[in-house]
């Protein structure tokens, strides 16, 4: 066989077999590379398609995490809106068909004439004046703004210092002390206000069921929040100074809210009836001061107490999950109480010291 083909043919056959083997092995490698590319190309292709689609649709992430970060500050408004809606419906239900058989056409016409005459007098006075009467509110406005600026500075310093371990104790002192001092000034102002407004005419028929119900329900939430803080601080009051400060702040908050509810209920039912009262506006400075104090405390509850780590004493006593639940239930009512108190005081500032046609 070797002689038949010769050495040349044998070498050529061997060379051809080697080439065929190399081609087959090369084809196998190429096939394997093709399979690997098939596994790579779909991901790259889908990535390119996603990029093209996002570019074509103009999807640009502008908001980022703003919605997520602002959720703790926005969710109380849902609870507040639901509370207002429920109370408004209750007041409507209470007054519909209250005295259906005691009112005839003559009484309705008389009441309508009285209302129209009072409205005409009020519009005439407003047309003559053409400006907001701010008499008797400059001092209260000045001192209130001074406390508001101080509270905001303490609030900013709290958020700066509480993130550093070496300054966390100072941050707690700063936050609770500023809150306690603010409420102490409010208590003194309320006591002075009771003395100043006692000369105004008291009219028991002047009342607002809506404001009274909203203030009382929201005050219950603030009482609950303060009581939980007092419990957490009082059981460790001898171990650390922050616990004593937390207990004091909670007690002062309860006392201040009770006095403020009584003051609002009293002043909202009083009216100016003497010319000298119309000129001096007794108690209006106090109303202005309390209005701005409630705005400052509204900011404190909104921005400081929304974070769980902002209350280390309560967090250490109750734990993360229980204290988070307590905050989520009570804090919206605390925020709403301060906000609605400011709104009610603004209404008192406007209506109580305006002379009316009797």
From TrEMBL:
Entry's transmembrane regions: 73-93, 141-161, 167-192, 213-232, 244-265, 286-303
Entry's localization field: Cell membrane
UniProt cross-references to InterPro entries, sorted A to Z: Otopetrin (IPR004878)
Coiled coil: none
GO cellular component: plasma membrane
Organism superkingdom: Eukaryota
Pfam family, one: Otopetrin
Ribosomal protein recorded as keyword: no
Bilayer topology term: Multi-pass membrane protein
GO molecular function: proton channel activity
Subcellular location, principal: membrane
The entry's keywords: Cell membrane, Hydrogen ion transport, Ion channel, Ion transport, Membrane, Transmembrane, Transmembrane helix, Transport
Protein family per UniProt: Belongs to the otopetrin family.
Protein name, entry field: GL16469
């Amino acid at each position: 066989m070797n002689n038949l083909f010769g050495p040349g043919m044998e070498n050529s056959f061997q060379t051809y077999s080697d080439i065929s083997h190399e081609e087959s092995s090369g084809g196998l490698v190429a096939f394997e590379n093709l399979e690997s590319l098939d596994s790579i190309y779909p991901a790259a292709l889908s990535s390119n398609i996603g990029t093209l689609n996002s570019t074509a649709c103009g999807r640009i992430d502008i908001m980022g995490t703003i919605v997520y970060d602002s959720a703790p500050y926005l969710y109380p408004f849902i609870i507040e809106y639901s509370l207002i809606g429920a109370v408004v419906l209750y007041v409507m239900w209470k007054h519909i068909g209250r005295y259906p058989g005691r009112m005839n056409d003559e009484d309705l016409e008389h009441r309508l004439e009285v209302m129209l005459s009072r409205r005409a007098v009020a519009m005439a006075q407003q047309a003559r004046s053409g400006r907001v009467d701010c008499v008797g509110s400059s001092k209260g406005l000045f001192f209130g703004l001074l406390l508001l600026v101080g509270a905001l500075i303490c609030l900013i310093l709290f958020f700066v210092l509480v993130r550093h371990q070496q300054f966390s104790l100072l941050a707690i002192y700063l936050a609770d002390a500023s809150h306690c001092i603010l409420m102490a000034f409010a208590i003194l102002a309320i006591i002075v206000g009771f003395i100043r407004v006692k000369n105004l005419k008291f009219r028991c028929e002047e009342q607002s069921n809506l404001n009274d119900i909203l203030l009382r329900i929201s005050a219950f939430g603030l009482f609950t929040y303060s009581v939980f803080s007092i419990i957490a601080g009082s059981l460790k009051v001898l171990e650390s100074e922050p616990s004593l400060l937390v207990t004091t702040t909670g007690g002062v908050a309860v006392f201040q809210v009770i006095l403020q509810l009584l003051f609002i209920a009293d002043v909202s039912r009083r009216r100016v009836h003497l010319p000298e009262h119309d000129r001096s506006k007794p108690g209006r400075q106090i109303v202005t001061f309390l209005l701005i104090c409630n705005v400052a405390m509204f900011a404190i509850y909104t921005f400081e107490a929304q974070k769980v780590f902002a209350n280390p004493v309560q967090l250490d006593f109750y734990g993360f999950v229980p204290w988070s639940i307590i905050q989520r239930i009570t804090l919206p009512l605390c925020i709403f109480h301060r906000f609605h108190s400011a709104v009610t005081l603004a209404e008192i500032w406007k209506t109580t010291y305006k002379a009316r046609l009797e």
